[in-house]
Every structure is written in C-alpha cells, then in structure tokens.
Amino acid sequence: MVTATSVQKFILFTLGSWYLEANRKLPEPVAIVISKATFIDLLMKANLAGKQARAIYKNLEDLEKQKYISYANRSLALTKKGQKLFARLYKELRPYVNVIHALKQTNPLSYTKKAQTILTQKLSAS
User: CA 89, CA 5: separation in Å to the nearest integer?
Assistant: First the structure.
C-alpha cells in the first residue's frame, strides 16, 4: 500500500480546508467545486506551495492514482479515503492552528500579567 508523501498530504489538506471554508456559508444542497487548474492557481497565488505548477499537477495526479482524490466533470473532490486522511490530518493539526488563531485574535500579552520587556542588541557580523 502506497502512502501519501508529506507534500501530497499538504496538498490534500489544503484542498480539504478550501472546500470546508468555501462551502461553510452555503445551504446544504449547494456546493462549490474547483478544477485542477484553478486549485493550482490558488496554491501559486496564495504562496501556499513552494513548487512549480507542473509539480503540483503531478502530485494531484499521484493523489488521484492513490484514490485520495477524484477528478470528474472538471472538479476535484476528496474520495472517502481522502476524506479519512483529511479528517486525521485536521484532527492532528487543529490544536496547533488553534494556538496561532488564539494568539492572533487577542494580544498575546493579555494572557499574562508578568511579561518582561528587554532590549535586544543585534550583533553585527565583522
């Protein structure tokens, strides 16, 4: 059994997260879909991928061969297997994302009464 690489997991997680957010505000029978080209463009424009478009496309094809995603009627979708992996990744990463979100929502200093301020000195390379 071939398992997804870390890059493929990242792409799958990004696709699953995109669908989660894009469809959150829509009524139940209505859903937004995304094509491969549009998804690759999204990754590139949002600087979410450090790869070239061709490498992302190849990873999407590999995810399709491994049955994590499907591409029918010009739309990408997570398969049952892909949904399981996304749910596992989401569950693993959620606590970390919550920390970042909480610290961005509220000033980090508001969580403590005794934070110290110090002056730092940058050393110059001679």
Answer: 13
8-state DSSP, 77? E
Is pTM beyond 0.85? Reply is no
What CA–CA distance (Å, rounded) separates 85 from 66? 12
| Calpha distance 65→63 (Å, rounded) | 5
Q: Apex CA 63: angle with CA 69 and CA 35, to 5°? A: 55
pLDDT digits (tens, 9 = 90+) for 30-82: 888 999 999 999 998 888 877 788 999 999 999 999 999 999 999 999 999 99
Strand partners, 75: 72
CATH 1.10.10.10 fits 6-107, yes or no: yes
CB 66 within 8 A of CB 2: yes
Q: Looking at beta carbons, which pairs linking 17-21 to residues 24 or more positions away fall under 8 Å?
A: 17/90, 18/42, 19/78
- What are 106's strand-pairing partners? none
Q: HEC string of 32-64?
A: CCECHHHHHHHHHHCCCCCCCHHHHHHHHHHHH
